[in-house]
Amino acid sequence: MNPVDAREAITLAHFAEWARVVASLARRFGDLDVAEEAAAEAFATAVERWPVDGVPPNPGAWLTTTANRRAIDRIRREHKRLDKHREAMLLTDDTPPEPLGAIDDDRLRLIFTCCHPALAMEARVALTLRLVGGLTVPEIARGFLVQEPAMARRITRAKGKIAAARIPYRVPSAQDLPARITGVLAVLYLVFNEGYLATGPDTDPVRADLTAEAIRLTRLIRMLLPGDGEVAGLLALMLLTEARRPARVSTAGELVPLGEQDRGLWSEALIDEGHRLVRERLASGVAPGRYQLLAAVNAVHTDARDARDTDWSQVVALYDQLVRLDRSPIVALNRAIAVAELDGPDAALPIIDRLESALQGYHAFHATRAELLRRLGRPGESREAYDRAIALAGNSAEIAYLAHRRDDLD
Fold it and tell me: How many angstroms separate the Cα of 48 from the Cα of each of 5, 55, 372?
């Protein structure tokens, strides 16, 4: 077996099977630590065995079986974790799992467990990115702009709280769903964003596995709550963003900004579905929420056949509505970008400069500022801003694009 082929198979299996293996073990053993560590050990065993023995015909089944054995080994070593009767049941339980229905999905159960309201919002997001998204602690730490040890402690405390509070591993009942859904949507959006612009230095710049999984789970939640406007809005937002993925990175490995993308590469099917969801929400007459407004912004972008045809006045108007719901500095930054397109860089730069204290550690702030300074004919300041953005960026395609733009200043 070619070791390179085996490594590629392991990488693909991690993308496709990590969440499934962790979720399966969490359901069986009821312990997130056991599930995560056993899954990690299974993948480590694959790294050792597959280059020698060959890739198994069903990698997912092999990983799940190996992870189950590792979990049982751990339980044997730590016999105090379970009584002997429970242990015997686990060791002899060879019955196949019952078939899952359309909503009875292990990964959906895992998300609702990780997103329990007993946990702080940041802990919910971090735990879901780790256990469902399969991101490493360094990747999650970069996304939160915190140090790796602090993020590791946050994830450990979250798992400990789930165990101590005996948070059930299940999809909530119908009456509990509305109160739980806000946190779940926030997590799914962050998982999608990590896939659309991956922060890991050794990962693909766009991780289609994460975007596809976020969309799949959001579809499941929409089946649970078909009348929820924000669920529909988030799904529309994901679809309209995912539609542009084929044009997102150039053959040279550089990020391609929205205005320069080949729109012929965009997925018409995803755009049509996203637009249909946006129109349905507008027709409902209910005031839109955050995700519905963001979806509407993306609907304006994908409605333009050419970047020059973009209705920037409508984009700014939508952001004006959004800032009344979400006063985060990132929303203000995105609004300023639209203002620059509508009224020019001289109108947007003062708005952006007021955000510096809040966004000084955010690469997109410095990248945006660099572009505006470039357009204003201030190359020295623009170069400094590009350097700062490159130092903070974690996506390889984005770093390549920013470096190209900075070097073009010469």
Answer: 13, 11, 50
Per DSSP, helices labelled H in 201-344 are 208-224, 229-242, 268-284, 290-303, 312-325, 329-343
Q: What is the pLDDT of residues 90-101, one digit of tens each?
A: 554 444 443 333
239 within a domain of the structure (yes/no): no
Q: Domain of 85: which CATH number?
A: 1.10.1740
Q: Which amino acid is at 204?
A: D
Q: Please name the residue ranges forming H helices in 132-176.
A: 137-144, 148-164
Q: Concatenate the DSSP letters of all residues of 110-138 into one string.
A: HHHHHT-TTS-HHHHHHHHHHHTS---HH
Give the structural domain span for 86: 3-92
Which residue carries 């406007």 as its tokens? Answer: 229
CA distance 72 to 306: 58
4-55: pLDDT as tens digits = 688 889 888 887 788 889 988 988 888 888 898 999 999 999 999 999 888 8
For the whole model, what pTM was predicted?
0.76
Residue 315's CB is within 10 A of a number of other CB atoms, namely 22
